[in-house]
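Comment thread on ticket #2218

A.B. wrote:
> Attaching the input chain for the structure job we discussed in standup.
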Amino acid sequence: MPKGAKIASAPLTRHNAGVSLDTIIHASLREPLQERHRPVTALVLMGGGARTAYQVGVLRALATLLKLQPGAAPGFPFQVLVGTSAGAINASCLAGYATEGLGAFERLAGFWDALRSADVYRLQVSPWARLHKFITAWSLSQQARRSGAILDTMPLVDTLHQAISLTGVEDALRQGTLDALAVTASSYTSGVHWTFCHTHQDDPLQGWRRPGRRAEFQPITIEHLMASSAIPFLFPATSLFVDGRQEHFGDGSMRQVSPLSPAMHLGANKVLVVGVGQPERPGLGADRTAARRRPTLGSIAGHAMASVFHDTLQADVEQTRRVTETIRQLPHAAAATLSYRPVEVLAIQPSGSLDGLAQQHLKELPAGTRHALGALGVLRGGGGALASYLLFEPGFVQALIDMGESDALARKDELLRFFGGA
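C.D. wrote:
> Ran it. Output below, let me know if you need it in another format.
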């Protein structure tokens, strides 16, 4: 909690504390007594399509800071990795190279340096359909009816098979470099938000159940990553087996009411979370003339995407800090009766508007995609918001990485304190 911040005076009840109190206490009860004081640092990476290149910049800056510390160890600084949507891809990429220590962050940066939109998706619209926007819109609607999505993500399957080292993940878990890798996805079949956890010895009985949330221990595969990153309407659903049956899954950011929960359940007492959203998008309503206009399809789409991807993170971080601080302030005798683990959380999110940044790079979108989205009217009036999830192109990606590095370096002191540095 920031220095000088005031703690809410509401009485500590499960109703007031929400899911975070329940998670903190329950996760502590599950943890073996002899392991309770073992330090476990988790990295939580939120989703956001191409916007998650921002996380690369934050982590690259973190690696630089850690390397410069006197007597710095070159080891990988996280024991638990948790990812959602494209954040799950970043987390899995890091897990695959975790045995290389801080070099894993450069491996992730190399992955993004080589990435292009064509490596992630393709738009299956025949050339003649591009002659008129109404024909294009009809063609896209037919594609959506056939597959449940506008875009084809088979290129991403091939890209992930080449980029994600599943054997490297196994090595990191077996050697103890990592304790766990967790990926989240949302079931279209049951409406349940699932967390898939992979450890050295996955035990199906270790999973947890919460209202609307479930966890299961099983090896993470490319299918899990495809399911977690299936942006609704844009990317098709992916089927996975849970509880012995097949269910269809979409983006893990949907119905994600407590993004920090998996890290706590997996034993973390320190959590660095990197988001890529700005739910309030300050300044967009400052133009009074624009405020009087009806929202465009582009602005509505951007608002909907922001709601899917980002609205729960800030609330969950503040809730976790508040609950942890309140428990710490309990009288010693009362605290001694609780089996709990205080959780330190450091959250980093973009300092600038990613929507506005994407608007500057709209021309980098593949011509077919730009034409099709333009035909649907979603690139007008705030169309950068939607495009920011699909702009896997060098100019936009590098701008995001630069912003991430700058934001992390601006919080150098906080990061070093978090990792025990000077």
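A.B. wrote:
> Thanks. Noting for the ticket: Residues 14-30 form the longest helix (17 residues).
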